[in-house]
Amino acid sequence: MTLQETSSPASVWNNIEGIAFGGDYNPEQWPVSVRLEDLELMKEAGVSFLSVGIFSWALLEPAEGTYDFAWLDEVMDNLAGIGVKVALATATAAPPAWLVRKHPEILPVTADGTVLGPGSRRHYTPSSAVYRRYATGITRKLAERYKDHPALALWHVDNELGCHVSEFYGEEDAAAFRSWLKRRYGTIDALNASWGTAFWSQNYGSFDEILPPAVAPSTLNPGQQLDFQRFNSWALMDYYRELVAVLREVTPGVPCTTNLMASSATKSMDYFDWAKDLDVIANDHYLVAADPERQIELAFSADLTRGIAGGDPWILMEHSTSAVNWQPRNQPKMPGEMLRNSLAHLARGADAVMFFQWRQSFAGSEKFHSAMVPHGGRDTRVWREVVDLGAALKRLAPVRGSRVESRVAIVFDYEAWWAGEIDSKPSVDVKYLDLLRAFHRQLFLRGVSVDMVHPSASLEGYDLVLVCTLYSVTDEAAANIAAAASAGATVLVSYFSGIADEKDHVRLGGYPGAFRDLLGVRVEEFHPLLAGTQLKLSDGTISSVWSEHVHLAGAEALQTFTEYPLEGVPSLTKRSVGAGAAWYLATFPDREGIESIVDQLLEESGAAPVAAADPGVELTRRRSDDGRSFLFAINHSRSSALVQASGVELLSGERFEGSVPAGGVVVVAED
Ligand code: GLA
Questions:
Q1: pTM for the complete prediction?
Q2: Which of 159, 284, 341, 370 to mutate for ligand 1's pocket (most ligand atoms within 8 Å of CB)?
């Protein structure tokens, strides 16, 4: 049973007006005089929502059972006084020193047996019964103290669960893993069958013999690895649920969430699974400064977050006003980039724009991380941009609650990501996100909006469905994808999809087992490419990474391999299915190749760009229940760009004249 089935607290949006704006607030790092100045600055910037107390346990409970809430009372009262709502943290993301000293068994253990010590943060394992007892203890104290506080709008449970450490190998983790396996399989025979332990004499006589897949002489059992991944994702969420159970008991009306890290960099947590237990989806996103196309990675993260949220509005819980401090070279954001980033998240479904953090620290390891109030104070570019952003978000209040429109779905599955990248596969160059992001990139560049959809979620209403390197898939999900084609969608499936079931057992009879009938192809043998090599295809485009021996079994070939030993073998095929079509792509095309395939797919499916615009403009449309629509156009280029739209531009309040300035953003409430 999920938490949502047991109770339904009020929506966080009932408590917030317009687009929420703010960030992490760590007042415990500052004297009262600065905290008072904060209130004035918050009013100046139009701050409406703050996450408070994320790393404050050691100050709230300085010794076991001794509490000091005076400073937090003052902060909460003062924030309420200026009308700011609070996502109050459970303070559990950094256990205090006294707790570690008394109970060192709470510390996380890595695969090689290293115990990760204190002095940083997140130094606990979620399966520690002792840790959970203390964490629920401080959570209950906070809930009891602030349950009727007018500032309290949301519980911010722990922080970025699974950040820094997402796999736990200690003794208590091993025991929890065994219990989880017992619940999953019931009998040891069922586990042996699922893990295929007849291989290499890995058969288990009882659950007690099982250990986490730590270090071993050679490759570890893939079923064990996959289940350990599932277990760790579950264990973090199970810890979340235990804290939320306390919060539900004491503050049943207050919604709960935790900040996810959905992006191309976070693989370990199945956020589609987690979403079932979050009352609102919240995400943190940081740009990689060295990525020249970082706006596309941002779009990918935001689209994924919206997918996790099932299309509902979500909270951008953290991003940065300028530089971070944890990349090798921390370049600041360019002028206007923070506004573009913020509105890009909004354009992709966020209804709250928040930062890490409100005021830049003067001490500690994040002192060179940007914030809303920089070291230099008010007379800085960053502060001026923060104030401008606050004003812009006020004008965008009408967008609140509207939903992003997309006719293209990219199927996204963390389990397939995990299973497909376990060792001992045909090629280390097949990475789950590479082809998927190459398609997403092409669609981004064309202004075609994309939803990320879990393979078993409804695909109804999509004109185009892309299934990229979806190595493992359940029968049910494969049927769901096939049904989309029958119903009229153009479905493209790529190489190394549908190979295995959810147990990571190969589907026999020819690849890609789960999609063979849908696609009308049968693949006999894989021919992955050696590092750095490429192939010429019959239409003159180039590909890399992968080729394979495809036989037609109902499909027609649209393109073929041209090189020995696969001359004339299909590399791209199509089969008509019901009202739609199923395409198969048997290699990783280069940019031109992907462009050409996307052209063909868009033409066949009828999925179109959001609007006509010059290159360099990011486009999305949000539509509200009452039919109003909002076109977001973000100009990432350094010259002004034309966009075809008519209506009132919300940021200026004027009629839209058809052009977006270099680096600028327009939001058109369309006629
Ligand atoms: C994460 C954390 C924050 C902070 C930022 C810095 O998102 O949640 O506490 O460390 O990273 O980028």
A1: 0.98
A2: 284
